[in-house]
Here is the input.
Amino acid sequence: MVDETQSMAGKTVLVTGATGGIGKATAMGLATMGARVAITGRDLKRAEAAAVDIRGATGNTGVAAFGADMSSQVEVRRLAAEVLEACARLDVLVNNVGGFWASRHVTADGLEHTFAVNHLAAFLLTDLLLDRLKASAPARVVTVSSGAQSMGKIDFEDLQGESKYSGQEAYNQSKLASVVFTYELARRLEGSGVTATVLHPGVVSTGFGAEDPSLIFRFLVPLWRPFMKTPEQGATTSIYLASSPKVDGVTGTYFSSRKPQTSNDASYDRDAAARLWRISAALVGIAPLA
Here is the structure.
């Protein structure tokens, strides 16, 4: 449940992928607390409609919409520029956007789609907004991963799934990458006043995976849906990590159900984390030590 007495007044939050599902519920919860909230969606009109919904439901007029296809690095860079232009401060970045694709797709940048959207988009956007977050410190970077990270393996020899592709393995790898990225980011931000946390939202009933569904999504998810969390329930940990004084200064930690949890053993490999950072930086065209 969102503690509506907790104030986020004066804070500015960016939530990516917030036209529906967990992202929209996260934005709604933070807007209810009085935050100025910026949301993104692949389709600007849909993002603007979501912003209207959030304003109407919360009475908070400080909700802005941005459009960006996060699979495209050009669009991620444009989004960052627009956010920096519109937001004089940025207290919280919630890297929420993500998805599942059963078959292999290639982005405009020539990258495997799951890895590009679920990991590289957050990696690049965070880098581009980092100076503004540092200037607004204390600030927070909250990244949505998944329990699937526990089954993930980062295949450095075939990160893009060119040799063999499994939608589930690509998803698991990307969500492990979110955890590894967060831990490395926390180490690099030590002493800056910016914290980095990552979370599993639970199994949530949304439109997730519907664009290119696997057989499991087609046939089993409808049977599981009555037992899944609502988007509002799935957003509670994101909202908690974005707003709660209880996690002031907490960084480099994986959460589930608003509690710290142990992540995949592989996520604690610092050499692998540094390697993933270097490769990710090269793939998005930024300096590896930025």
User: Anything to note?
Assistant: The chain has a mean pLDDT of 92.
